[in-house]
Write a structure and sequence with these properties.
Blueprint: E1 3-8, H1 15-21, E2 28-30, H2 31-38, H3 54-58, H4 60-76, E3 81-84, H5 94-103, E4 106-111, H6 114-119, H7 124-137, H8 147-161, E5 178-182, E6 200-201, E7 208-212, H9 219-226, E8 233-237, H10 250-259, E9 265-268, H11 276-282, H12 288-299, H13 305-316, E10 319-320, E11 322-326, E12 337-341, H14 347-350, H15 362-366, H16 378-385, E13 390-394, E14 410-412, E15 418-425, E16 437-439, E17 442-444, E18 451-457, H17 461-471, E19 475-479, E20 485-489, H18 491-495, E21 507-512, E22 515-519, E23 525-526, E24 542-547, E25 551-558, E26 563-568, H19 573-585, H20 588-597, E27 604-611, E28 626-634, E29 641-644, E30 647-651, H21 654-664, E31 671-675, E32 681-685, H22 687-701, H23 714-728, H24 736-748
Parallel strand pairs: 1-3, 1-4, 2-3, 4-5, 6-11, 7-8, 8-9, 9-10, 12-13, 13-14, 23-32
Antiparallel strand pairs: 7-15, 11-12, 15-18, 16-17, 19-20, 20-21, 21-22, 24-30, 24-31, 25-26, 25-27, 27-28, 28-29, 31-32
Helix pairs in contact: 2-4, 4-5, 7-8, 11-13, 22-23, 22-24
């Protein structure tokens, strides 16, 4: 979190012991440790006195330069930091003040000296003797000091904090921006309290609370949320305020947000706002989408650079990493706790008894827990592992295309093309439902919170995506007819697996100006290839379609030119013409014309798999041309499925899935496509296809691959046997018919050890 803990006190008061006993070493920046790294000093045996060593102190200027550089780097990243020093000198807090203003930090000081001063009745001589004794008797890992050093420190402490009558301790000399706590061994957690901060949202003054998902400059929908504002309504924003917004409304959005004042308004920090720090402090821009935001606001004349920096600096100070809401206590069920953040709190954090929430790196709540937060099904795991009365509300990540309330105790407020928010509301003064009731098309169970979900079409996301396509080095754009552009991820992006919100959409995505005119599926993966494509992440029921081994044809109606267009996903002339020929030859064009006669269908794209075994050879053998309609998808950001064709069956549970795999995956087809209940898609490639693909590699090379030899990989082992069989049959060049004939040769000879086996659930599970 953006929290700085200043450990203050005389040497020997327990600062280092506190760090050691509470395992805080990795959070701590210490001048002593830096001093030790710079010089071994004048040593006698294993003894090292950094305080009385003139060589060590000769490096003091460099020590503090490095100290503040390390501290700033940590604060720039939003990490919790402890700083260990006596902090008794005049001006000890000056640099902290600069940094906390730059990086929006909550600063707390723990006084380790005060408890002993009181214990010894404020007697300065006794206090000095006590701390001197402590430094002499403590373990060797801590430094020891001369009596005069301790005496000087005690004098400084008394001068700053102890009243003239020597019977009170006052912190009037401490700047008001520092919260002071006296060390209490019996209550170590009090220094982490959120009391008095907006991270605790008090319901007692409100009858309604709107929790608003990723905004992305959606000014039109933002106005709808506030249209019926009444006194007693609170608002919590989960972040991502401007980037990807409609250029026409960016200023309106920023001005409206910054005009909102009062305790009923809470702004959380999103990952896009992390780029604000470098901009407001140094004028640097580290995020392409934020660069577009800044360029738009400045080039339109909305702000000068300096005005925008000042505006965002002020707004940035209001952003928090998280917010908690507790419902009032109920004798029946106790309380409900709402945990609200940008990326969602990970169940692994909540269930770790050693985790102190205040010590979390802010990035964990803004981007998610490493190593790959997008690949972790945070909603599902929260539901499985966290109590139902602790409710996780977040935006930012939805790689699994969850609904707005995927489970009883999670709410996901982000989805491409949607503006999502939820409303927590009281009825007759109660935030919980007394008895079963139906309201706003939602059925509420007794003793549960009354929450209404809202899902509106996003008003600006398409324009933002198109801007990202232009800027991304991972996207290849091809100019086609009449201003249409084909957008596809590059070979390098594919090879290096640079998948993100932009690259997965750029798979046969056709745009013109700020509009999607036609599109393929969003990139989907083989089952088990990535964490998010693990077969266990699918939601039943699962629809199953046969996967045809051809190339994708994208057919859409061009409303501007009043005609139907046919392209391959790359928009290349050869495959686009070939697709049109096969569609005409197979009679599909008549069906396409009839489909688009209905004007309501003209906002959708028809997707076909085209097979032309002579002109476009692949791996699976077909004896003729065919055009298989796969689906109709909406021309929106997500490519929402409107109609899925060639469905061969439905799987309702894991037992049925196991049965399907055992009966249907030992095939000479490419495999299957699974569509789950949320329209999430994964590919299931047959072992036949995988072996034949390996065979093609070897036959193209003209010799067995080295990877086939001395391997435990069953696919590669069988591919080696197929290669030798093809050679013995006089086959030197790969074709789909070669693989098919080799397969049947082993089949006829009953050589099952050289035949592909059915897939299992384990084959479709992600392995790290």
């Amino acid at each position: 979190m953006r929290r700085l803990y200043i450990l203050m006190g005389v040497s020997g008061s327990g600062k280092s012991k506190y760090i050691h006993d509470n395992h805080l070493e990795r959070y701590t920046v210490s001048t002593d440790e830096i001093r030790k790294m710079l010089s071994v000093g004048r040593t006698v045996g294993s003894t090292y006195d950094c305080y009385n060593d003139p060589i060590a102190y000769a490096n003091n200027k460099l020590v503090f330069k490095l100290f503040y550089e390390i501290l700033e780097e940590r604060m720039r990243r939003g990490e919790t930091v402890y700083v260990e020093a006596t902090h008794l000198s005049k001006g000890a807090f000056r640099e902290y003040n600069k940094l906390r203003q730059m990086y929006n930090y909550d600063v707390r000081m723990i006084d380790f000296t005060a408890p002993q001063v009181r214990e010894l009745n404020y007697n300065k001589a006794n206090v000095t003797h006590y701390f001197y004794s402590q430094t002499q008797n403590r373990p060797k890992r801590y430094e020891q000091f001369d009596y005069d050093v301790i005496k000087e420190q005690v004098n400084k402490y008394y001068a700053r904090y102890v009243g003239r009558q020597n019977n009170t301790i006052s912190y009037n000399t401490v700047p008001q921006w520092i919260k002071v706590f006296e060390y209490d061994a019996n209550d170590k957690d009090k220094v982490h309290t959120d009391k008095g901060l907006k991270t605790i949202f008090n319901l007692k003054d409100y009858h309604t609370v709107h929790i608003i998902g990723d905004l992305h400059g959606d000014y039109e929908n933002l106005q709808k949320v506030f249209a019926n504002h009444t006194k007693g309504t609170g608002y919590i924003f989960v972040g991502d305020y401007l980037d990807r917004g409609n250029p026409q409304h960016l200023k309106d959005t920023l001005e409206f947000l910054t005009s909102l004042k009062g305790n009923n308004i809470v702004f959380l920090r999103g990952n896009h706002e992390q780029a604000w720090f470098d901009f407001v402090n140094y004028g640097k821009i580290t995020r392409p989408s934020f660069q577009r935001t800044v360029d738009t606001l400045i080039e339109r004349g909305d702000y000068t650079k300096e005005e925008l920096q000042a505006k965002l600096r002020k707004f940035n100070k209001r952003l928090l990493p998280y917010c908690f809401i507790e419902t009032p206590y109920s004798d029946t069920v106790g309380r409900y706790l709402f945990v609200i953040s940008h990326a969602g709190v990970d169940d692994r954090i909540i269930n770790d008894d050693n985790t102190i929430f205040a010590h979390l790196n802010e990035d964990v709540l803004v981007n998610g827990l490493a190593p790959d937060p997008y690949a972790y099904d945070a909603d599902r795991e929260w539901h499985k592992n966290v109590d139902d009365q602790v409710i996780n509300i977040h935006g930012h990540r939805n790689a699994f295309h969850k609904s707005i309330q995927p489970y009883s105790n999670t709410y996901n407020l982000t989805e491409d093309g949607e503006f999502r928010y939820v409303t927590l509301t009281a009825k007759n003064g109660s935030w919980l439902v007394d008895k079963a009731e139906e309201s706003d098309d939602k059925f509420y169970l007794p003793n549960t919170p009354r929450i209404i979900t809202h899902k509106l079409p996003s008003s600006n996301s398409t324009a933002a995506l198109i801007s990202e396509l232009v800027d991304s080095q991972d996207i290849k754009q091809k100019q086609l007819d009449d201003g249409i552009i084909a957008n596809n991820y590059t070979k390098e992006a594919f090879r290096e697996q640079r998948w993100n919100n932009t690259t997965v959409k750029a798979r046969g995505l056709f745009t013109r100006a700020n509009e999607i005119v036609g599109r393929g599926f969003t990139k989907f993966f083989n089952a088990g290839e990535r964490p998010e494509s693990d077969i266990r992440t699918l939601t039943y029921p699962i629809r199953v379609a046969k996967k045809v081994d051809g190339f994708l044809a994208i057919v859409f109606y061009d409303k501007e030119c009043h005609m139907t267009r046919v392209y391959s996903k790359g928009g290349g002339e050869y495959h686009s013409h070939l697709a049109a020929y096969v569609l005409e030859y197979t009679g599909e064009f008549d069906k396409i014309d009839k489909y688009y006669e209905d004007k309501t269908n003209r906002d959708t794209t028809l997707l076909y798999e085209i097979v032309e075994p002579v002109m476009d050879e692949h791996i699976v053998w077909y004896d003729g041309v065919c055009a298989t309609r796969l689906a109709a998808v909406k021309n929106d950001l997500r490519g929402s499925l409107m109609l899925v064709s060639n469905i061969m069956g439905i799987i309702h549970n894991e037992d049925e899935l196991k049965t399907f795999l055992s009966l249907h995956t030992n095939t000479t087809e490419e495999g299957y496509v699974f569509y789950d209940a949320n329209d999430k898609m994964v590919k299931v490639k047959s072992n036949y296809f995988r072996i034949a693909r390996e065979l093609r590699k070897g036959m193209a090379l003209g010799k067995p691959l080295n990877s086939w030899k001395n391997t435990d990989d069953k696919i590669k082992k069988i591919a080696y046997e197929w290669y030798k069989k093809a050679q013995s049959m006089g086959m030197r060049t790969f074709s789909p018919k070669v693989a098919y004939d080799v397969y049947w040769a082993f089949k006829i000879e009953d050589m099952d050890e050289f035949l592909p086996t059915p897939l299992t659930l384990e084959d479709l599970t992600y392995k790290k």
